[in-house]
Amino acid sequence: MEQKGPIELALKLLDNLKIVRHNEHRYISSDFGFVNSFVKMETTLFSLGQPYRIKEGRIAFVKQGSVRVLINLIEYTIQPGYIAVIAPNSIIQITEVSPDFDMQMIAADHNFLPISGKDDFFSYLLHHQKSIILLLSPQEQQQVEHYFTLIWGVLQEPPFRKEAIQHLLASLLYYLEYIAQNSIEQNPAQLTRQEEIFQRFISLVNTHSKKERNVNFYADKLCLTPRYLNTVIRQASQQTVMDWINQSIILEAKVLLKHSNLLVYQVSDELNFPNPSFFSKFFKRMTGMTPHEYQQTK
């Protein structure tokens, strides 16, 4: 049987599912997408509590209601006035959505954006963070609304004006980078030393946990002793270094088990477990069910 990689929440997937490409609520192509309202979005795309890997970068602007979501292990509650910029290949897990929730969202492949010499424009602007969540001032919120309205308006005019959309999107990203940088400059003590270490640690875990499960590895990367790293992480999050590593592995395992045709032993190999039995016991201990049971859940 041919092995398939995990299904990504990607524009190509949406296109293959024959979701309407261009109507009053959304525009979707192979490298750019715009959802003007999620109220009538296809419900079959998302399941609460199910982790998904997104292929392209995302900009999400909440219009009403609220959503509780894990983005690369960290939980956020996003409400009106907030905007989220999420790097490609992030794992997201929606855990709660209010009945009145609605947002606008832009997705773009990095090749779509008009910049040369950068592998990933989103990550470049995020200074290699996986995501930023910004609370906008009323004036900033109005400006962002203007960007979304202008981009959506240009999308309504056939033919597709690719260059105009590309540069409007780049302008929006630079504007959001300015807001983020301005916030840091106005609040230079925004992050404590503990918080800075924690953010860097989580970024390392998201990158390396499939292969590296030793506390020493992360301590070395951060130029800290393992004991000090454990102390800082526990103080910052009330969880240990291994707690976070294990949570990251479980997220990866869930994505592979649910969104690929890999068998359990193949998932075990992919995640560098010594054998399938060890992986199954680890998964059962962390989730309360076996990998096979999890695959069967809806």
From TrEMBL:
Domain HTH araC/xylS-type residues, every copy: 199-297
Record keywords: DNA-binding, Transcription, Transcription regulation
Gene Ontology MF, one: DNA-binding transcription factor activity
Record-linked InterPro entries: Homeodomain-like_sf, HTH_AraC
PROSITE patterns named among the record's database cross-references: HTH_ARAC_FAMILY_2
Keyword Transmembrane: no
Tree of life domain: Bacteria
PANTHER family: ARAC-FAMILY TRANSCRIPTIONAL REGULATOR, TRANSCRIPTIONAL REGULATORY PROTEIN
The protein's name: AraC family transcriptional regulator
Species: Bacteroides finegoldii
